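Need tokens for this chain, all 662 residues.
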Amino acid sequence: MRSHRSRALSLAVTLALASIAGPLVTAQLAHAEDRRSGESHGFVWMQRNFQKAWNWVTQQERISVLWGSICRFATPVPGGFAAGVGFSIVELRPKPDGHLEIASTINVGNSTHAGLSHGDRVYAAAGYEGLITIDASEPGQMKEIARHRGLGYALSIAMGKGYLYLAFKEHGGLAVYRMREPGPPELVRQIASGESYAQIVVEGDRAYAVGSEKLMIFDLVDPSNPALLGVLDVPYDVRPKPTDPMPRHVAIKGSFAYLSHGARGLLTADVSDPRHPKLVGKWADIDFCDWVAVQGDRAYAASEGTPVRVADVSDPAHPHWIDHLDLAAAPAPPQPALPFADPSLLPFAFGPRGVYALDVRQPGVPPVAYAFQPPPFFHRIKVVGDQAYSTAGAHGLHVFSLADRTKPAEIGVLKTEGLARGLLVVDDELWIGDVLGWLLITRPVEGGLPERIEVADRGGHAWDVAVVGKYVYLANSQVGFGVLKRTSAGFEMLGETFSGGYTLEVAGRGPYAYVGTVGEGVAIFRADEDPPRRVGVLKWATLGPLKIGPVATAITVDGDTLYAGTPQGDVRAFDLAASPTDPPLRWTQHVGGYVYQVTREQDGLWVSTGPAGVAHLDESSSPPTIGRRYETPGWAMSTVRYQDRLLVAAGEAGVVSLPVAP
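Here are the structure tokens for all 662 residues:
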């Protein structure tokens, strides 16, 4: 059932993690010193520049504009935790109720994928920024000590015997650092293997790395010089889709390794003979797994959209599930909580859902000892009657009363299955697009929360939702778009179509679908054919020196005009009446910021431009002039008119109401 979740979460892997596959290991890593085999491959070059472009598109530290504040690691420091949140490393300290709040922040400038702590030091793997070393000795005053860039994109870090091991995904390889406290770590060795590493862990005299469709085992007898002992390949014939090739996480229990492998679920490998590891099975009843940890006789496995599963691994060869913990329904942290460095406290980051620390002393379901959930980030807004509805990622769909149109008052929150982003009004229904794979159909209720009508499960992750004739299109990241058809029996999933780039937006007119992408501009499909047939593409100048192609971040069709927004702050208007498959460009207007949405109202075009607020375009001239700008307290993501007011989904600032100038 969760096979499509691999595509939903592959955003984090393909773009935020920018994972790629490298050539096979055929020799000892010592023989591969300084070899840069991946450098010559065009695909590697494309992925590297694609990641750089994505960093630029998301405005570096403001990655939350698309996903919310993604939490990727949590590690204890004196008096709290250090955590990777978006493009930053934050210090989390407890409030009296056990929930955590941000005490200090270091902006890294790239995704913070993994981290660990030693005393009052924090070491983080931070993408192209490499290894970040932080002093967390003073509460509320984390300080950066040093950063070391290395072989490419740093994705994981491990510690053992006084050394740090930094694993890279891009050119592939390991960097070995000697820990020196109070000084910064010292680089002692770089090994360019050509492999793509998703995670590395150290247990005793062994290091275990997953990635590039395999598990690799290293000998650390000489901790400064890891030597490859054995490799476990993950064969293609047991993988449901070749688009999800990389194991994501590994945990070691005695002579067994537990591998989280996305759509392949959770796998068990026998590593008692490190030169000849072997796969011994797939766990039953779990078909998607992002994260796994082992503490004592318990294993914990989860993905960003599922509960934490608890397994008994006292007999590692025959593990079995015993219970699960639904974080969305978890009670508030108890008091008093365990000390942060207590070995019975298991901290982990749960993507957009935040940071949780579990008390694993009990044999059953572990209670939450500490919790941090990023604040809501509002994406889309619609008005039905006298109520406004706005999607807010992991925080669901927020409902506001407009009885006082100057101050929207929140009525409540409808929790969605995953991360609510897309939002569409169809007749008397609200359609909510879920980044983790659902399309939720609801009916507005005056004065209350919408009534659930139907859920279309696994239509691709719905960054945006559009109805094109009798079909429903869901923007579905690098896969393109999912196609559904609504019947009397419910929604029928017809398949998925690749759009030529990372897909953000989709709109329709007649038999045509217009798909906004990163890398292809606007791809055009004939939507009344099965499967949809690509019939055209609208391109413009490439994205600066990165040469990845045009980026369309907003797609709106109004009458005979297609509007496309760009991250450079441009709005482009195309004439669909002249040609629906190759429409000529009518005009281009630079509005600044980052164009997230173009909305047609009775008095012109309203453009949500992120950090530049909202711009009003007067189309009485060509190109249209900017009639007025409206500053917003947060990032303007989506805009709608309501009587004499402008309602804006303003990112972290919530839903704001602005007066419209006469």
